[in-house]
Each structure stands twice: as structure tokens, then as C-alpha cells.
Amino acid sequence: MVVSVALTIDLTLTHLGSGRVSLKRALAETALWVCLATGFGVWMYVSRGRQSGIEFFTAYLVEKSLSADNVFVFLLIFRTFGIEAQFQHRVLYTGVVGALVLRLVFVLAGVQLLRHFHFTIYIFGTGLLILGLHMLVFTPAFRPEQSWLMRLVRRIHPVDSSYKGHRFWVRNSGRLTATPLLLALVAIEAMDVIFAADSVPAVLAITRDPFIAYSSNIFAILGLRAMYFGLAELMARMRFLHQGLSVILMFVGAKMLVNESIPIPALISSALIITILIVAGLASWLCPSKTP
Fold it and tell me: How do the domains of the chain map onto residue ranges?
């Protein structure tokens, strides 16, 4: 019920208007979603027990921290396709529905794989370790406009690159033409597949309860767009955040691999993740990047 109310608020009430989202509104919405997630976690703690409450907060913290990378990617996609600030809101608003459906599929599939094919826990754990190590060593050069998916979209439909507005399709001389807004939406949905493949196994390292796993994803996703408008520029100054996220991924991967022989309580996991984020933030503040 709480999750349904949260979806209704985000999809119908808080985003009825269109146009540029102010910093004040973005920060207010971010605070609102953090408060809602906190209240939901407290309800989980009271109604389903201490373990469920801690697992939700830990899973939510993992999802929220990993979503920071999404903010950087969204910023790059919008800059690449020349999407003006007043139209970015529409792309993110439309993309959230697909993201919620995709995460549900990934969570349910992941839980069933772990339940019926136990060895997949080692595949997930090893994959997270490798991904975290790769993130720590390499900084990928992401060029969405050069991807095969963008080339495919351009081949199927001509793109009106000069169009400025809130529509995904327009008609030029009677012919249906895609706009840069549609390209940005396709790029964001495609990247969410990659994000889901990373974050869902990380959450399943915290909990095998599909309700906890999916609800933590929901609150992280619904707060992501507000966080983007409020923190996109600020987070670009977080020099060591990427490395901090890589360490988190390696930790949850290792937890998944050793949890049966060396159980790591969710409370300790949560404390370690918070510590990693604090250290990354302090390092970024003490040693800021030389480039703006």
C-alpha cells in the first residue's frame, strides 16, 4: 500500500507541471523521498521485525549510493543530445515507468535463480567483484551517441536534430520523425538495463526477500530524478565517489561469496557502506579535482 501511494505521488502529483525544475524544488523533493523511505523502513522494522528493517535500510543505502553514477550518466546523455534543462524533466518522468518494470523483472528473476540454482550466488558475487575492480582501475569513456542502439534508432527513423521541444515525435512533410528527446530516452532506458544488472545482484547480497529488494529499488528510483536536478552539478565535484562506489560493489560481491561460511550482519554491512561513502566524500573535499 505504501509503495502504491509513493508511485501515485511521484507519477501524478509532484510532476504534474512541466518545465525547468528549480534547485529549491529538487532539493525539497529529494528530502521528501528520503523521509518517505525512512518512514517505510521504520514501518518495516516495527511490522516485520528488526532484521527486515535493517535489511531494507541497507539495501536502500546500496541502491541510493549506486544511483549516484546514474546522475553522471544522465548529465552526459542530456549534454550529448543537447536536451535543454526545461525538457529534461519529461525524459526522466517517462523513463521511470520502464525502470520500475525492469527492476521488478530483475528482482524476481534474481530471487528465483538464487532459490533454484544456488551456484548462481557465486556468479553474481564474482561478477560484482570484477565490476567493482574494473570501476576502481578504469574510468570508462561513455559516448551514447556512438552506440549501436543509437545507430539503429537513426536507421529506423530519421531524427530532427534541430528540434527543440517536449515531444518525442514530430511530423515533417507528413513523415514521422524522431527528436533528440527520444534518443535521450532510449539511451537512458538502455543504461538502466546495465544499472539494473549491477544493482539488483548487489541488493540480493543484502536480502533475498523480493519485497524488500524491490521496495528499496522503488524508493531509490523515485528519488533519483529529484536528486539529478538537485545534485548533478554538485556531484560532479565528488572526485572520489566513483572509487567509493567501486569499493561498495566489491564489498557486497565478497559478502555474497562468503556469507554462508562467514555471515556478515546487515547492520555491519550498512555501517561499512556509510563509512565508505563518508571517506569518499571527505577525500573529495580535501583533494578536489583541478578541473571544474
Answer: 2-140+190-286
